[in-house]
Amino acid sequence: MAEAAKHGATPLEGDGKRILLILGTPKGGSLCHALCEAFAQGARSEGHVVRLLKLGEMHFDPVLREGYDQSQNLEPDLLEAQRQIHWAEHLVFVYPVWWGGLPALLKGFFDRVFLPGFAFRYRDQSTQAWDKLLTGRTADLLVTLDTPPWYFRWIYGAPAHRQMVRAILGYCGIKTRRLTEFSPVRPSSEEQRQGWLRKAETLGTRC
């Protein structure tokens, strides 16, 4: 019971899907937080078991100091994150796009957690063949931007989306099921934001 409460799960895990929400922003009280809560509410209403990782509240060094040349001990919060990722059937990443890419905290989380032996494994020294160790999991991406979607896609080339879907999740075997943009945020009205929250809740019911 205590463990379930710690992770925001319902006390008894029934037949619902195991969902891990990862809030990838250090900024408190943001639209991303509200979207995360709305998605969780929708998912729980359908009987799914939802757990939450708030990266901004975790304690870890986001810098991979020596790359993969030397091992870097994982902090307790990162070890727990790995356990939660193994537990989950479906991952939901909620984050903003900053400077066309991922927030440094979220990128640092991937650098430290998605390690060889956990997320992937090279078959030889050439690195041209590898095993995708997180295969079987799916993902939703809920992304906020100040840039209009068409501009981000056609002028910038949507670098953050390609990085997440192909270079990170796809590389490890996680299949992105949906990528939903909420933008542009800065000029949005309260009515628009309320509509986005309803959309996020609806997405949660469709897991």
Automatic annotation (TrEMBL):
<dbReference type="GO" id="GO:0005829">
    <property type="term" value="C:cytosol"/>
</dbReference>
<dbReference type="InterPro" id="IPR003680">
    <property type="entry name" value="Flavodoxin_fold"/>
</dbReference>
<dbReference type="InterPro" id="IPR051545">
    <property type="entry name" value="NAD(P)H_dehydrogenase_qn"/>
</dbReference>
<comment type="similarity">
    <text>Belongs to the NAD(P)H dehydrogenase (quinone) family.</text>
</comment>
<keyword id="KW-0560">Oxidoreductase</keyword>
<feature type="domain" description="Flavodoxin-like fold">
    <location>
        <begin position="17"/>
        <end position="199"/>
    </location>
</feature>
<dbReference type="InterPro" id="IPR029039">
    <property type="entry name" value="Flavoprotein-like_sf"/>
</dbReference>
<dbReference type="Pfam" id="PF02525">
    <property type="entry name" value="Flavodoxin_2"/>
</dbReference>
<protein>
    <submittedName>
        <fullName>Putative oxidoreductase</fullName>
    </submittedName>
</protein>
<dbReference type="GO" id="GO:0003955">
    <property type="term" value="F:NAD(P)H dehydrogenase (quinone) activity"/>
</dbReference>
